[in-house]
Every structure is written in C-alpha cells, then in structure tokens.
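User: tokens in, sequence out, please.
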C-alpha cells in the first residue's frame, strides 16, 4: 500500500496492493498496522455497503460534532466519482473540494477524515461502494449540503442525476455566512 495523493490536510488517496493469479485476485483492504504507518489512526465502528445504479448521486453527507465520522471509501464493483468537501472552518481549504475516480480496477481507497462532507456519483452501469466509519451514524447529528450547491460548483460528471428526496432537501451554503463573498 502506498499514499499516492494528499490533496488536502488529512485526505489520503491510497493505492492498495493487488495479487492476481489464475483464480482471480486478492486485495487487503484494511490492516490496522499498515494504516497506522501512513498516518491513519482510526478505530472503525461501522461498515456500510451501498449498491446504486448509473447516474445516482449520493450526498453530500456529514455528521456533526460530537458524532463526526472519518470514512474509508472503496468501490468494489463499477466506478464512482468520489467527492470530499472540507467543512472545517479553521482550515485553509475550507469549502474546497476534491474528487477522485474510484473503480473496481484501479485499487484505490480514499480516506476522508472527520470534518469533511462526502458524496459520490455513479459513473458505470451500477456500482457497489464499501465504506468504513470510525464512529457510529447518529440520526440526530446528520447533516449535509445539496449536491448542486452553487458555492461548491462540483462537476459530478452526470447529465441527468438521480438524487433522493432527502438529499434534494439538504441546505445550500450561505455564501455570506461562509465568508465566500
């Protein structure tokens, strides 16, 4: 495993080792000792697996203090555009976003620490996404921002997105309160 990109403080794109033979392949997706070596000291509390069809956008989701979540994201089938938005007000990259293609073939895994919102769009016919969380989901502390927020201006690489009613009701960022105007 190697770090191939650290686009913002705390975000890490990792390339996992893949071992192939005539039977198929093997990838170790998590090993606490190896993750500690690259600076990820998370004790995971919850694993999620999500199946989605093409053109689905999920997010942008986050958990509020004191139930923030760090997430380790991988795409085990298909392809997604994964997006993290820095929601840490004290950060020099506050409200900046980073996106990365995660696919079943590229052996990448994406660490998103606490303080970021997360979402993804499905680029293939369908996708299966696994993510590990370092704290449990708490419905009273869930939050997020609309996928099409004009302040963020994220290119999801989809023409006709499929977005849940719940995600359509997420708020937009107030540019004045956020200090971006």
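Assistant: Sequence out:
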């Amino acid at each position: 495993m190697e770090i191939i990109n650290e686009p913002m403080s705390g975000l890490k794109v990792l390339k996992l080792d893949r071992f192939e033979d005539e039977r198929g392949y093997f990838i170790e997706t998590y090993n606490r000792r190896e993750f500690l070596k690259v600076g990820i000291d998370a004790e995971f509390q919850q694993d999620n697996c999500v199946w989605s069809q093409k053109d689905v956008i999920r997010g942008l989701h986050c958990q509020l203090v004191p139930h923030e979540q760090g997430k380790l994201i991988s795409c085990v089938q298909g392809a997604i555009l994964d997006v993290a938005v820095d929601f840490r007000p004290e950060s020099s990259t506050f409200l900046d976003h980073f996106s990365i293609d995660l696919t079943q073939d590229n052996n990448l895994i994406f660490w998103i620490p606490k303080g970021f919102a997360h979402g993804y769009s499905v680029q293939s016919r369908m996708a299966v996404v696994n993510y590990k969380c370092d704290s449990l989901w708490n419905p009273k502390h869930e939050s997020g921002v609309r996928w099409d927020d004009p302040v963020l201006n994220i290119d999801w690489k989809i023409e006709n997105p499929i977005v849940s009613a719940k995600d359509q009701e997420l708020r937009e960022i107030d540019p004045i309160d956020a200090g971006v105007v």
